[in-house]
Design brief:
With 476 residues, the protein is of the alpha+beta class. It is built from 15 helices and 14 strands.
Length: 476
């Protein structure tokens, strides 16, 4: 994980630079503000340049009113609104200037609904308490009969202040917090956070640790994708399919627990490498024993007409919208975008030829395509783990990672849900000062409404399940 390249811009240069970037084939990734000790605020724009090892950062000294870049890069919409809520910066020209995470007030409502009239038009505020044990959120539907005219999610009802919790902590404690930002992505969060610390502290991680991080990351991808298939089957009323997907996911978690000591792969990764060697004896054999049950399960899903019929054409996300609005992970790849950090910005052992990742893609952009991408990634993860175990180098598993006062860097990982980035800033005592988390669910929840408008109520649960998002990962 390389320290980011930096580019200092003036406010008046921001709009032309954004337009030039858009035309160059590079990609804007995120925006976040940093407040210095003297109270001034600097905006950081994170940019992905094809072929570059890491990311580039644009640094702009913030003024009370900044030009919105949403007309050029629509994916920045939620980032600008978040900066408005947390740091009081107004973005002139933003098409949706209402609060994102702050409570609404009388002058700025939080839900923008289109101006539509009709005798049959109804508004349904659904949530925040929903059926079962799903996460809390409120969704506003504007609908006529079964047809959804417009849809607005409101996801920040339980804002936990996770980023603020990092401030003042030492770098070791930061790992514990990172693992708990989103429980089902603990390993990816730990890898991205540790990568940022390692880059900031100029720490060289041993190859043996990098290889074992691949094993951990792909175990997490496996159990997430199997759970996803079970949940998707449940939304199509295939109760046996739901149960079998959940069982296969549980079996992977049990294998993970034997290898790492934690079903959710916590407590192993730390800045500089690993806290301990993994228990790898029997790991590949245990996973190989799952290959046939997984194959049979996927085959039965594909042969279930009611499953395919409910997924095909549901929640279609065109490639152009996926790009403009910032889709990531399997959601983006199912719409034809070949984007995977393990491939685009290879990190750790993914840089080695034996662990090269070829992104799984699909062109249809619907719920079925999103499932097919994850199925391909299940098979790829099994192979990646086997190769990482076979090629595992010897040597130490951890290097010293001494904090560098005032240092900063980015760390990243391709989580089961997509691009995950940690921006870490240390204070002059070498403790955490500012930690910004770019979550894949934050990006995909931004995209999701574009697949809901104009659809129908009966398909909503299937469409949401096909995105595989978490609210905890979004409402940090």
């Amino acid at each position: 994980m390389n320290a980011p390249g930096e580019c200092q811009l003036r406010v008046e240069d921001l709009q032309p630079a954004a337009e030039k970037l858009h035309d160059s084939g590079a990609r804007m990734i995120m925006l976040y503000p940093v407040r210095s000790a003297d109270g001034t605020i600097e905006l950081r724009y994170v940019v992905s340049v094809p072929g570059a090892a890491g990311f580039t950062q644009w640094r702009v000294r913030a003024e009370p009113e900044m030009p919105s870049l949403v007309p050029v890069w629509p994916l920045l919409s939620w980032y600008e609104r978040e900066a408005q809520d947390t740091h009081g910066i107004r973005f002139a020209g933003h098409p949706e200037p209402e609060p994102l995470i702050a409570p609404p007030d009388a002058t700025m409502p939080s839900r923008r609904l289109p101006d539509v009239e009709g005798d049959q038009l109804q508004v349904l505020p659904f949530g925040p308490v929903r059926a079962g044990i799903v996460e809390s959120a409120e969704f506003t539907f504007l609908y006529m009969g079964e047809a959804i005219v417009h849809y607005v999610p409101h996801l920040f009802l339980k804002h936990r202040g996770m980023e603020a919790r990092f401030a003042g902590r030492d770098i070791e404690t930061g790992t514990i917090l990172a693992e708990r930002v989103s429980g089902v992505g603990s390993a990816a969060h730990a890898i991205a956070y540790a990568g940022a610390i390692e880059a900031a502290c100029r720490c060289t991680v041993p190859d043996r640790a990098f290889y074992q991080r691949v094993i951990i990351a792909e175990l997490e991808r496996l159990y997430n994708h199997l759970h996803y298939l079970g949940h998707l089957a449940d939304t199509t009323t295939l109760k046996v399919g739901h149960a079998e997907g959940s069982l296969l996911s549980e079996r992977v978690k049990q294998i993970a627990a034997r290898a790492t000591g934690s079903r959710f792969l916590r407590g192993v990764i730390g800045p500089g490498g690993l806290r301990r060697d993994l228990a790898l004896d029997g790991l590949v054999d245990a996973l190989d024993a799952l290959r046939e049950p997984i194959r049979r399960y996927i085959d039965r899903l594909d042969r279930s007409g009611s499953y395919f019929d409910r997924l095909a054409t549901t929640g279609k996300l065109p490639r152009e919208i996926a790009f403009d609005q910032g889709a990531t992970g399997p959601v983006a790849r199912a719409s034809g975008l070949v984007r995977d950090l393990r491939h685009d910005h290879p990190y750790g052992a993914y840089r080695d030829a034996s662990l090269t990742v070829t992104p799984a893609t699909h062109d249809d952009g619907d719920a079925y395509a999103r499932a097919q991408v994850r199925i391909a990634e299940i098979r790829a993860s099994l192979d990646l783990i086997a190769r990482a175990v076979a090629d595992l180098p010897g040597g130490p598993i951890r290097a010293d990672c001494t904090p560098v006062p005032g240092a900063e860097a980015l760390g990243f990982a391709e989580s089961p849900r997509g691009t995950l980035i940690y921006a870490v800033h240390l204070d002059q005592a070498g403790r955490l000062d500012r930690v910004k988390v770019k979550s894949p669910s934050f990006s995909n929840w931004r995209v999701f409404p574009f697949t809901v408008h104009g659809t129908n109520m009966m398909d909503y649960a299937i469409n949401e399940a096909s995105f595989g998002m978490t609210i905890a990962g979004c409402a940090r």
